[in-house]
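## retry 2 of 3
previous attempt timed out at serialization; input unchanged, resubmitting
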Amino acid sequence: MTTKLRALGDETRLTLMLLIAERPRTVKELQEATGLSQTLVSHHLAPLREQELISSKPRGRSNVYSLCCAELGGPVQLLASLAAQAPEGAASCQ
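## retry succeeded, writing output
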């Protein structure tokens, strides 16, 4: 359990999880939404996949990432709202 929370403890990964919680997304869509490079997005998705917080399905030449289960959306949004209450976390949740 702590390794799953540790994976969500990174600001960038939490932002990616929030985007994926809205709807399944490709790496390119996550790049466009965050302004991060493809390499960096993939780097941050890896721990989320390893902890089975997200899953990926091939679609053409891309992978579509989605939450492991619908029940995870609420807790992810709660974590983001808690991060937004701290001054250093507010920027990541807008």
